[in-house]
Write a structure and sequence with these properties.
By secondary structure, this protein is mainly α. It contains ten helices and no strands.
Length: about 210
Amino acid sequence: MGADDDPGRRPYRQTRRAEMTAQTRARIREAARALLLDRGYAGTSMRAVAEHAGVGVRTVYDCYPTKTDLLKQVVEAAIVGDASPVPASGRGWFQGVLDEPDPVRRGELLAAASTRLHERTAGLFAVARNAAADDEDAARLWRAGKAGHRADCERFARAVVGDDDAALGALTATLYILIGPETYTLLTSELGYTPHAYEHWLSHQLAITFGDAS
């Protein structure tokens, strides 16, 4: 029996193959991220991504069947800050915000997490938003993302006001605006706020909002 047929080596080979696949996917995502930020969605082809990543076009399609799927994975990796499939709502910081009883501290936690998220994603969100205006697949992706943002805001709101429908709707809407990417872009791009200044502003607004709703 040859070395390749040794059952004892199979787990190693499978682990090594999985590691190489993950590295290739990450390289493709990084290449796509750079090109999307530089050229936009319409100006970024799968062939260009392949060339930038140093892989074949077929490899790109094997990892990400469509350009929209690639955009989705690039954005999702930026949202959570890594390649893990665990969404933001499954992260420890998210549960920490839900569990925090003090409105000031809750505001600080959510402001800090939101600022870091926006620093990673602001440019990509702009790319996705612009793509949604001209591409129906990208538009569906954008709508799904906004629905997810609303669902997250509703979870934060429910942790404060419970099942009071009127209060829940009002607080969800306020959080949707306060921590949304559009507000971050408005303050940093148009009003000249630094990320630190945005975080300070947001923390203050959230503390007031959570305090009034409690």
